[in-house]
Amino acid sequence: MPQVHSRQHVFSNFVSTLDGVVSLRVRGHEGGGDISGFNIQDRMVMGLLRAVADVVIAGSGTLEADPRHVWTPDGICPELTDDYRLLRKALRKPAVPLNVIVSGSGRIDLRLPVFTSGRVQALIVTTTAGAKRLLERKTPAGLEIRAVPGCRGNIPPSSILDAVRGMNAGKRILIEGGPRLLGEFYAQRLVDEQFLTVAPHIAGRDYGDGRLSLVMGQAFAPDDTRWGTLTDARRGGSHLFLRYAFRRGRDGI
135 — alpha (psi -120 to 50), left (phi > 0) or beta? Predict the structure, then answer.
C-alpha cells in the first residue's frame, strides 16, 4: 500500500465470475463465497486487505445479505488469525478495523453481531430521518450514529468519508459493498485502487433476475469512462487476482 499522508486512500475488493457477476441474488447464496467457490486464496486476500485497512465500509444491502458477518480479517479467513493479528500489530493499528454501515433509511437491525458482539467499533452513516429512526430504539454501547445534514436519499460518498474522518480511525478505507455503493464512489472519482478476484466460472443472467455486476446504478462509458491501470496480476490455481490503480479527479479530493 502507498504511504497515506494528507487524504484518505480508498480501495475496494470484490470477486466476480468470468461474465462479471458479483452476486447471484439467490436467497442464501448472495455473498461472494458462492462466486469464488469459497476459495481459500480469495479469502486470504480479503482478510489481508482488512488487516491493512483502518476502516471497512459496507452498505445496508451487504449487511442484509450476510447479517451475521463482522468485517474483521479473521471473520473471513480464521485460518490466518494469528498472522493478521501480528500484521496489524506491526502496522501499529488497533486489533480490528472500524466497521461502517451506510443506510439512508436507517432501517437496520441493531441486534446484529456487528453492533452487539463487542468485536469491532461500529459506525452507521445515515440521513437525519434515518438517525431519528435508529435512535428511537435501544442503541448498543459503543455504536456511533452519524447523520448527514440535508441528505434525504443516497448519501454522497464524500459525506461518508467526512463522517469516517470525524472518527479519527485512520486513512486506509476499504469498500466491500455493495455494487451500488461502489458505483457512487466511482461516480465521484473517489476510488484509488480496485482489487478484483476473477473466479473461473460462468454464472449467466436471465432477464430480470437482478444479478449484480461490479458497479450498479451508474453508467460511465462511452463519454465518461473510468480507466484503470493494472498494477499487479497473480494466479492461484484458475483464479486470477488483479489490482488496478485509478486516478482521482474532478470531484475526487
Answer: alpha
Residue-wise over 163-180: b if at least 16 C-beta within 10 A, else e?
bbeeeebbbbbbbbbbbb
Nearest C-alpha neighbor of 176 from the set 56, 32, 40, 3: 56
Query: Which residue, among 4, 16, 113, 14, has the nearest Cα to 53 in the 3D structure?
Result: 4
Residue corresponding to grid cell 500484521: 87
Q: How far is CA 161 from CA 84, 156, 169, 242, in A?
A: 25, 9, 11, 25
CB 19 within 8 A of CB 202: yes
Residues 154-168: pLDDT tens digits?
899 999 999 999 999
In this predicted structure, the answer to whether residue 31 has a pLDDT above a threshold of 80 is: yes
pLDDT band with cut points at 50, 70 and 90 for residue 50: very high
Q: Which amino acid is at 102?
A: V
